[in-house]
Amino acid sequence: ALPKILSQTAPAFCMGSCSFVVEKSKESTARVVVWREIGVQRSYTMESTLCGCDQGKYKGLQIGTRELEEMGAKFCVGLLRLKRMASPLEFNLPSSLLDIENELIESSCKVT
After folding, report:
1. Which distant-in-sequence residues (6+ apart) come within 8 Å of 43 by Cβ?
2. Pick from 11, 21, 62, 65: CA 20 to 30 A from residue 52's CA?
3. To 5 degrees, how large is the angle CA 52–CA 55–CA 45?
4. What dihedral angle (degrees, nearest 10) is formed by the CA atoms of 104, 68, 6, 85?
5. Which residues share a beta bridge with 59?
6. Residue 53 phi/psi, 5° resolution?
7. Domain map of the chain by residue range?
8. How far apart are CA 90 and CA 111, in angstroms?
């Protein structure tokens, strides 16, 4: 669910670049070890590049601090949305709150 949320809200996130299989070369990564040895059902690794994007609104641009901060902020909003989806009764906040958060993120993380 979190990758789907991020694909809808974070312009630098690409669902098509996601891989959810456990490859032999990835068996010693923290994501796989946490899943296998501790039993965390949804353990993810988020990778970034400094070279640039090949899709979305950042296509052809080099990734900088603003884009990384925007991704971090969108990730936090995505976690909040995920929590609200999983426990709607615990989060009786108005849905407009997420819109306000997104507007704040957009205004503080503009690409110039």
Report:
1. 30, 31, 32, 34, 35
2. 21
3. 70
4. -60
5. 53
6. -105, 155
7. 1-107
8. 35
Q: Which amino acid is at 69?
A: E
Question: Tokens 């990778």 map to which residue?
Answer: 47
Q: Which of 23, 27, 37, 47 is catalytic?
A: 47
44 phi, psi to nearest 5 deg: -120, 155
Q: Give 3-state DSSP helix, strand, coil % of the chain, rounded to 5.
A: 55, 0, 45
Identify residue 42 by its one-letter amino acid code.
R
* 70 strand-pairing partners: none
59: helix, strand or coil: strand
* Predicted model pTM: 0.68
Sole residue written with tokens 């993120």: 105
Indicate if 47 belongs to the active site. yes
Q: How far apart are CA 66 and CA 57, in angstroms?
A: 14
